[in-house]
Amino acid sequence: MSPLRAGRRKYYDLFSHCYDAFIRLHARQDEDDTRRFLVEAVHSGNRPVRRILDVCCGTGSVVLAFSEPYPDAMLVGCDFSHGMLCKARKKSSATTAVFVQGDAAELPFSDDSFDIVSCSHSLYEL
């Protein structure tokens, strides 16, 4: 990993402690609307949805939003920040979500492993 990426990882490990509060302040009343929009924008074409991946999942809010419309799906959040993943795991106790540390530039999954893949609020980092 480049020194720049390693520095970004440390930044997000530290930022994880106040990330959700920052998002609530920044998004104000739109926070839930944005997640709802992302989930509703998915069109599965009436195919069964068994596996959902959220790349750069942060504290897991988006991938966990998929748990209501897809209660039987395996939810996977992937992020390179250990701090963000710790926060996500604390939120996920009522779901079957799994959180994996990995870099979006080299995802640790085989091609075609997921039925739905999301990546929001993070493309500027890539």
H-E string: HHHEHEHEE
Average pLDDT score:
87
CATH architecture designation: 3-Layer(aba) Sandwich
**Helix run count:** 5
Q: How can the largest sheet be summarized?
A: 4 strands, parallel
**Major sheet: order of its strands?**
3-2-1-4
CATH homologous superfamily title: Vaccinia Virus protein VP39
Distance N terminus to C terminus?
Answer: 13 Å
| Structural class category | alpha/beta
Low-confidence stretches: none
CATH topology category name: Rossmann fold
The counted number of beta strands is: 4
Task: Describe the model.
By secondary structure, this protein is of the alpha/beta class. The chain has a single domain (3-125), classed as Vaccinia Virus protein VP39 (Rossmann fold, 3-Layer(aba) Sandwich), CATH 3.40.50.150. It is built from 5 helices and 4 strands, in the order H-H-H-E-H-E-H-E-E. The protein has helices at residues 3-15, 19-27, 31-40, 61-65, 82-91, and strands spanning 51-55, 74-79, 98-101, 116-118. A 4-stranded parallel beta sheet has the order 3-2-1-4. Strand 2 (74-79), helix 5 (82-91) and strand 3 (98-101) form a beta-alpha-beta unit. The protein starts with a helix and ends in an 8-residue tail after the last strand. The mean pLDDT is 87.
